[in-house]
Amino acid sequence: MPQMDIEALARVVVDCGFKVHTGLGPGLLESVYEVVLAHTIEQRGLHVQRQCPVPIEFEGITFAEGFRADLLIEGRLLVELKSVEQLAPVHSKQVLTYLRLLCLPLGLLINFGAPTFKAGIKRIVNSHTDFAASRLRVHQAASHHAEDKE
């Protein structure tokens, strides 16, 4: 199967997220949505990593688990899940920080606590390009993401 572009991956995740939100409704624990959404995406033939640890280097010291990404789709699309009544500005900032650390162009923030799926999904785009200037870097053994930056 040829590699999907990042927008095609996002469309699959949005479609699966809508299916999960419609099927389960709002109000469950984030962990429930995570496992069900991951399964739904995998059924579409995509590779999903759950709670993917991402080591961070700061001032020359590597921390084995700087953070955990809720879902990483095909190693190229970050999906952060929430189950809250209303997203706070910090949630979008969190996703953008993760995208910058991972050098990824796009992330989806999905709040399953919203009354409708449309009200609970946000696209977060990383337009930050000067990663070398940052003193905070992620060490990742995964493939480079140059094809995603076109």
- List low-pLDDT spans: 129-150
Strand order in the sheet with the most strands: 5-4-3-2-1-6
Beta-strand proportion? 25-35%
Number of domains: 1
Helix content: 25-40%
Number of strands: 6
Q: Tally the helices.
A: 3
* Backbone shape: globular
How would you sum up the major sheet?
Answer: 6 strands, mixed
Roughly what is the average pLDDT, rounded to an integer?
Answer: 85
* CA gyration radius, whole angstroms: 15 Å
Which structural class do the helices and strands define? alpha+beta
Order of helices and strands: HHEEEHEEE
Compute the separation of the termini in Å: 21 Å
Quick rundown:
This protein is α+β, with helices and mostly antiparallel strands and 150 residues long.
